[in-house]
Structure to design on (1562 residues):
C-alpha cells in the first residue's frame, strides 16, 4: 500500500491570522493557542491533496481568536462550523517518561529510602488536596447559602409587602435585577479574564485526564467543585503557582506531566467526593474518565484524597451548623437518606424504572440537541465578551421573570404546617398556606431536589410539577454553555426529579394509591434518568447516587435506569460533555479504537515524512526546524548521524521540542572544530524549572556563529522510544498508545528505519459514525 | 555490559521425575505440570552457572508431584523449601491478540452490526454470570444454614439432655464427630480429586487475573464465592465445559485468553458482590487484583454482573425467607445496618481507631508468620492425601473440643430475654439465662460476627471475649491452608470483632461508661483491623465493609484502620495471600517494577540466546524445537529466511507453540520441491477448537518424509510483535509488559535483529527485599 500523505485544509485564511498568532505567542494569555502549541511531529504541506467530500474550510476557531484579538473580520458570518474537524491547536500531555541519561542517572542515584520519601510526599500532597478541596467546598457552601438566603429574604419581604399593596411588578424587577447583577459579576470574570472557567469544567477535566493539554485548565481560578479540586491539585503538587508567581521550591520531583496528571485525578475525585459526599464515586469518576494506565497505589491515593475531602467538609460544616462532630451528612449536595423500610421497591417496579430510563434518554437527547443548536448559534454570533455578559444577564433575568410569572399564576396552595419549606411565599394563598410553585422556584436548586425526593405524597400539584418541568427544562438548556461557571448536574437532577415525581403521582392515581407508589422514589429515578440521558455516565454516576442517597439497595434500579437512558440517548445524539468536546475539535481518544478499524494499519494512519534529527546535529538546523511555524512538531526521532550518506537511517532515540529549547537556552553545544570538547552538562532540574511553560524558540537568541556549532543529543534523547512496525493494525497501535499514555509513537520498517510518526491526532481522527468509519479532517487552528 | 546467561538450578534430580512428567503430559489431570507448560522462549542450559548464595535445590513441587503420582521418593524429607525461587511450571496467559492474517481477515469481515452482536453477547454472558453466581450463593446459604441448624440443634438437645444427667463428655464426642465427618467429606474431595480447590481461592484468582495460568483454576468444582463466581464465568463464557465434556457451540468468539480473563474478572466481582452484598466492592476487588489494562466498557460489564448477582441473591432469599421482594438485606454476610444516629463517631476517636489499626497490623503479622511456619511444615511433612484428610479432621475435632471446653468452663451467664441468640445453651446457668461463651462458639461464624457488632453493651463478659479471641486466633491460623475449601475472611472478621469489642468494653470502663464508647463500633473497627492486617487489601476492602454495613460515614475510619494495619503489617511480614503465592513460586507481577531497578536494562533482564524460526521453515526443525523438553519455549520469533546467510536476521514476527502445534496437526506444509504450491488453508476456528488445551507435540505423528517438507509461517505469525531496544530500563520494559498483558516481548538491536526475549519470569524474578533489589532463582519445576 502506498503511503498516504496527510492533508490539511487551507482556504481563504486572512494573512493577519498568522500575525495574530505570532503576536499571541509572546503574551501569556494566548499561550497555547499560538503556533507553538500545534501538532505533533508532522509535516503539513499545503500542497497535499484533499480527499473528496472533505470540507476545506477549517477556520473553526477563528471566532475564538477574534474574540481574543477583537480585530474586525472580513467574513465572520460565513464560517461554517463543523464538528467533523480535529483541531491541531491542542497539545498532548506526555505520560511516558523520557528515559534519557540524565533521568536514569538521577533515578539510579536515588536509593530505596529516598524513594520512600517521594512516596510519603505523594501521600502528603493527596492529604493536602483533600483538605483544601474540602475547605473550598465548605466556603462555597456557606457563601452560597448565605447569599441565596439574603436574596430570597429580600425578595420574599418585598413580595409579601407588595402582595397586599399591589404592584408586584416591582418585586419582579427587584428579583430579576438581583439575579442579573450577581450573574454579571461571574460572567465578566469568565468572559474577560479566564474563558476556560466557563461551564462545568467537566469536559475540560475529561480532556486533561485523557491526555489533552487544554490551555489554563488547571490554573488558579474559581469553578464548580470537580474543577476546583483539579485546580487545587495541580497547584499544590507543583509546589508553585505561575498565576501567583510564587515558587515554594518544594515537590520539584513532581514537575512533569505524569506526576501532575496523577494529582489532578486525585483532585477531581476529591471534588466529586466533596460535592456529593461520594468518596467512592469520586474515585470511579476519575477512573472512568481518565485512567487507562493506573495502578493500585495511585488508586489508593486518589481514594485517600477523596476520603479526606469528604471528612474535612463534614467536620467543618458540622461545626458551622452547630452540631459539632456529627459526621453523618456528607457532601454539599445531600439527597437525604432513603430508608429502605419506608421507600423500598419491589421487583414488579423494575419495568417501570426501565420505562423511566427510556423517557430520560429521550428527554436528555432533546436537551443535548437543543443545546447543540444553541452552542452553534453562540459560536457564530455571540463571541464578544460584552455580548456574552449581556446574554448571561438576560438569562438570569428571564429565569427570575419566568419563575415569578409561574408563581404568580399558580393557584397551588399547601398548608404551611409540617412542611420544611425554607422561604414560604404566601402570595394569594390563605393564611397558614404557602404557594407550592414557589418552593420549586424560590429555593436553591439543591434544596428543591431534596424536597422533591422527600416531601410526603400530596405536597405537589401535578399541574405545578408539569409546568415547572417544562419551563425549567428550557431555562437549563439555555443556561448551559453561558460564560459563567455553572454545571448541568443539579439542573438535570431537578428536571428529572420534577417529572419523576409527576410520573409517580400519575402512577398512584392509576393504581388507586397503592402503598408502593411513593412519588419520592420516582423522583429519584427520574433524576437519575434525566441526568443519565444528558451526561451518559453510568458506573460512577450509579455509585455517586448510591452514596448520596446512602442506600445500597437502590443501586440496582439506578444502574438499570442509567444504562437504559444511556442506550436510548446514544441512539439519537451524543452525551453533552462529549458533544462539547467534539465541538471544540479536541483530539479526544476513546477507550478503544473503532471496532471496524482493523483494516487500517500504521502505514496508513501515520504522518509522513517525519522530520528527523541526527544524533550530532548542527545548531542552525535545530533552530530552523523549531522555528518552522508551518510544521510545529513537538517530537523528533533521532537517527544515526552518518554524514557520508543521505539514506534513511536507523532510529536511535526521540527528543522533544521542549528539551531542545532548554538545550539551546543553556547553550549546550560545541564548535564544530572542537567536537571532542565536552558539552556543558545540564541537570534534570534545568528541565524541571522550565516546566510546564517552556519559552518559545523566538525568544532564544542564537548568533550566526552559534548556528554553526554542533549539538550532541545522545545524552538528552530518550534512547528507547516505543515503536511499531508498519504492519500493525490501527487497534494495535491504539492500544499501545492509549495504555501507555504516549505522545509520539515512531513507526519503523523492518530495518528499524523511521518511516512515520503516530500522534494523538492521527488516532483521534478515526471515528465510528452512523455509516461506519469516518475520518475527520485536521485544522491548523 | 555483557549478556548474562540465565541460570537454572539442577541438583540430584531423580531421573524418574522426568518420566513422571512425560507420562503426565498425556493425562488431563497432570496437564500443566508437565514440561509442556514450563517456561517462555528461553534456553536452559544445565551447564550455565549458579550465582553464589543461590540455593541449588529447586525441587519445590516434588511434593506435589509425589502427591499426584504416589511414587516412593528416595529423599523426600531433605528438600529445603525456599521462597526465593520462581517456578517455571506456570505458564502465562496471553492478553495480546496474535494479529496474524487469519485474525485480521476475520476482523475485517465482521461488520459493524456483527460487532454489536458480539457486544450484546458479552452483556448476556455477564448477566448469566451474575444470575448463576447469585443462585449458587443462595444455594450455599440455604444449605449451610440448614446443615448448621441441624448440627446445632442435635448437639444442643444432646447437651441439654446430658447437663442434667451428667456425662457431657458424650456430647463433646458427638460434636467433634459431627464436625470431623463433615470436614472429611470436603477434605477427601479436595485432597484426592482437585487440589486447587483448597483454601479460599483468592490467591489463585489473584494469580489468574495477574496473567498466570494456574492449572484447573477455573474448572468446574465447588469453592467459596469468589472462586465460584470465577469458575462459573469461565464455564459460561466458553460455551462448553471440558470437565463435563459438553460443547454447546456457542460463544466461540470468546475462546481466547483475553476474552476469558475479562469474564473471569466479572465472575470474581459477582462472587464478592454476592458474598458481601457489595457490588461496588466486587468491581473494585477485580480492578485491584487484576486490572492493569481495563477499559470502561469492561468495567461496566463487571459492574452489571455484580449488580445482577446481588439482586438475584436478594430476590431468591427474600422469597425463601417469606418476606418476598424485600430487597433491603443484600449479601450472604450481612453486617447489619449501622445507624449513624445511634453509633456515630467523633473526631476524637480517630486516634483510637488508628491505634486499633496498629494492633490489627501486629496481630495480622503474627497470624501470617504462624501460618507461614505451618505451611512450611505441611509442605514438608503432610503431602499424602490421607495425611491431609486426617489433619483436616483433626482440626475439626479439636475445634469442637476447644469450643466445648471453653463453654463448659465459662460461668458467663446472660438473661435469655430480649437476646437474639439462635441456639441458646443453658448448661449450668440459671433458668432463663444462657451461656454467653456458647453464643460465640455455638453459632455460624457469620452470625457470631453480627452478634458482636450489634448486641447491646453488656452482652459479653470481657473474660469470655478474651479467651475466645485467643483460642479462635490459633484455631483459625491452623485451619487456613488445610485441604478444604475455606477462606480466611470470616474467621479474621470474627477474631477482630471479638478483640475489638473487648477493646471497646475496656474503653468504656476507662471513660466511666461515656456514651460514645459503644462496643459494637469498636468490634467493627477491630474486625477491619484484623482482616486488613492479615490480607492487606485496602481500597476494595474499605468499600466492601462500607457496603456491608450500609453506612457511608464509616468509610473514613475504616479506611484509616485498614491503611494503618497494612503499613504496620507490611513492616513485619507480607500479606497472607501474597505469602502463599510466593510459597508456590508463582511468577506474579506486581503493579510496578521495583523502584530501584532503573539500573537494569533489557539487555540484562532478557533471556538469550533465543530460538528463532525462519519464515519458511523445515517441518523437522519445528518438530525438534517443539520436542526439546529441556527448553520448552512457548513463543518463537520469526526471522527473515535467507538460506544463504547464517548471520542473525531481522525480526519479522512471532509465533506461539500452540499455533505451531495446530499447524502440524493439520499438516499445513508443502514439499520442498513444490514451494510454489499453496499450503492448506486453516481457519481461526481450527485454533479456537483446540483452545485452551492444545495437544502435546508427542501426540502428533510426523513421518520422516513430512519432516523434509517446508512450512510457511507468514500467514500465521503475528507480524507486529511488541519490541524494545536493549537500552530500555527494567521499569520501562515492565510497564510495557504489564500494561499490555504480554507474554513475550522481543528485544531487538538497532538493526531490528533479535537479541533476546523477555517473559514474565524474567520480570517477576526481580523483587525488592529488605536489603534492596533481590533476584530469585528459577526452577524448572
Amino acid at each position: 500500500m502506498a503511503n498516504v500523505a496527510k492533508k490539511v485544509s487551507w482556504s481563504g485564511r486572512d494573512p493577519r491570522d498568522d500575525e495574530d498568532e505570532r503576536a499571541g505567542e509572546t503574551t501569556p494569555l494566548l499561550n497555547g493557542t499560538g503556533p507553538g502549541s500545534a501538532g505533533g511531529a508532522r509535516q503539513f504541506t499545503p500542497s497535499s491533496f484533499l480527499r473528496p467530500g472533505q470540507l476545506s474550510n477549517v477556520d473553526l476557531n477563528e471566532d475564538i481568536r477574534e474574540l481574543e484579538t477583537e480585530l474586525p473580520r472580513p467574513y465572520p458570518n460565513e464560517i461554517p462550523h463543523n464538528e467533523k474537524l480535529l483541531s491541531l491547536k491542542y497539545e498532548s500531555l506526555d505520560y511516558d517518561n523520557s528515559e534519557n541519561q540524565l533521568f536514569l542517572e538521577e533515578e539510579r542515584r536515588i536509593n530505596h529510602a529516598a524513594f520512600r520519601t517521594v512516596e510519603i510526599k505523594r501521600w502528603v500532597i493527596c492529604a493536602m488536596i483533600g483538605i483544601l478541596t474540602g475547605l473550598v467546598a465548605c466556603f462555597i457552601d456557606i457563601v452560597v447559602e448565605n447569599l441565596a438566603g439574603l436574596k430570597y429574604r429580600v425578595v420574599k419581604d418585598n413580595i409579601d409587602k407588595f402582595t397586599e399593596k399591589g404592584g408586584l411588578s416591582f418585586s419582579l424587577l427587584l428579583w430579576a435585577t438581583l439575579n442579573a447583577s450577581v450573574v454579571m459579576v461571574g460572567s465578566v470574570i469568565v468572559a474577560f479574564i479566564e474563558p476556560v472557567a466557563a461551564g462545568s469544567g467537566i469536559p475540560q477535566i475529561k480532556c486533561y485526564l485523557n491526555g489533552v493539554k487544554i490551555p489554563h485548565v488547571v490554573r488558579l481560578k474559581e469553578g464548580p467543585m470537580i474543577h476546583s479540586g483539579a485546580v487545587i491539585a495541580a497547584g499544590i503538587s507543583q509546589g508553585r503557582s505561575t498565576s501567583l508567581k510564587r515558587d515554594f521550591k518544594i515537590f520539584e520531583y513532581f514537575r512533569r506531566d505524569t506526576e501532575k496528571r496523577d494529582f489532578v485525578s486525585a483532585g477531581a475525585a476529591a471534588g466529586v467526593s466533596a460535592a456529593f459526599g461520594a468518596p467512592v464515586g469520586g474515585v470511579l469518576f476519575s477512573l472512568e474518565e481518565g485512567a487507562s494506565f493506573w495502578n493500585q497505589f495511585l488508586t489508593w491515593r486518589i481514594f485517600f484524597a477523596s476520603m479526606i475531602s469528604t471528612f474535612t467538609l463534614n467536620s467543618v460544616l458540622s461545626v458551622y451548623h452547630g452540631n459539632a462532630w456529627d459526621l453523618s451528612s456528607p457532601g454539599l449536595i445531600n439527597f437525604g437518606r432513603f430508608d429502605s423500610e419506608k421507600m423500598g421497591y419491589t421487583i414488579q417496579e423494575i419495568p417501570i424504572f426501565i420505562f423511566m430510563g427510556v423517557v430520560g434518554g429521550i428527554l436528555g437527547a432533546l436537551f443535548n440537541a437543543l443545546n447543540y443548536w444553541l452552542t452553534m448559534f453562540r459560536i457564530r454570533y455571540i463571541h464578544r465578551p460584552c455580548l456574552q455578559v449581556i446574554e448571561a444577564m438576560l438569562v438570569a433575568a428571564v429565569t427570575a421573570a419566568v419563575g415569578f410569572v409561574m408563581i404568580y399564576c399558580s393557584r397551588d396552595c399547601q398548608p404551611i404546617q409540617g412542611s420544611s419549606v425554607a422561604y414560604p411565599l404566601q402570595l394569594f394563598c390563605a393564611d397558614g398556606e404557602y404557594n407550592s410553585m414557589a418552593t420549586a422556584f424560590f429555593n436553591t436548586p439543591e434544596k428543591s431536589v431534596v424536597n422533591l425526593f422527600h416531601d410526603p405524597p400530596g405536597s405537589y400539584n401535578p399541574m405545578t410539577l408539569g409546568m415547572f418541568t417544562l419551563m425549567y427544562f428550557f431555562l437549563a438548556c439555555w443556561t448551559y454553555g453561558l460564560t459563567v461557571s455553572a454545571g448541568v448536574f443539579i439542573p438535570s437532577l431537578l428536571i428529572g426529579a420534577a417529572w419523576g415525581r409527576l410520573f409517580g403521582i400519575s402512577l398512584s392515581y392509576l393504581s388507586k394509591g397503592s402503598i408502593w407508589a411513593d412519588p419520592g422514589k420516582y423522583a429519584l429515578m427520574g433524576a437519575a434518568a434525566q441526568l443519565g440521558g444528558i451526561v451518559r455516565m453510568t458506573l460512577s454516576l450509579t455509585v455517586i447516587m448510591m452514596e448520596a442517597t446512602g442506600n445500597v439497595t437502590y443501586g440496582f434500579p439506578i444502574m438499570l435506569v442509567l444504562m437504559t437512558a444511556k442506550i436510548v440517548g446514544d441512539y439519537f445524539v451524543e452525551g453533552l460533555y462529549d458533544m462539547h468536546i467534539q465541538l471544540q475539535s479536541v483530539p479526544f481518544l476513546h477507550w478503544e479504537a473503532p471496532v471496524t478499524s482493523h483494516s487500517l494499519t500504521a502505514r496508513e494512519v501515520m504522518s509522513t515524512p517525519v522530520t528527523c534529527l541526527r544524533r550530532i546535529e548542527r545548531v542552525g538546523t535545530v533552530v530552523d526546524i523549531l522555528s518552522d511555524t508551518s510544521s510545529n512538531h513537538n517530537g523528533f526521532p533521532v537517527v544515526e548521524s552518518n554524514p557520508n550518506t543521505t539514506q534513511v537511517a536507523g532510529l536511535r532515540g526521540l527528543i522533544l521540542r521542549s528539551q531542545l529549547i532548554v538545550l539551546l537556552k543553556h547553550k549546550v553545544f560545541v564548535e564544530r572544530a572542537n567536537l571532542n570538547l565536552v558539552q556543558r552538562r545540564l541537570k534534570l532540574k534545568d528541565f524541571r524549572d522550565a516546566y510546564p511553560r517552556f519559552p518559545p524558540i523566538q525568544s532564544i537568541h542564537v548568533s550566526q556563529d552559534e548556528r554553526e556549532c554542533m549539538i550532541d543529543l545522545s545524552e538528552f534523547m530518550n534512547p528507547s522510544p516505543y515503536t511499531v512496525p508498519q504492519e500493525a493494525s490501527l487497534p494495535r497501535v491504539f492500544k499501545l498508545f492509549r495504555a501507555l499514555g504516549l505522545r509520539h509513537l515512531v513507526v519503523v520498517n523492518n530495518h528499524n528505519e523511521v518511516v512515520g510518526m503516530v500522534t494523538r491526532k492521527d488516532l483521534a481522527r478515526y471515528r465510528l459514525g452512523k455509516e461506519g468509519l469516518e475520518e475527520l479532517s485536521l485544522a491548523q487552528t
Q: What stands out?
A: The first strand of chain B starts at residue 85 and ends at 87. Residues 508 and 730 of chain B are 54 Å apart (CA to CA). The two ends of chain B are 30 Å apart (CA to CA). Chain B touches chain A through 89 residues (CB under 8 Å).
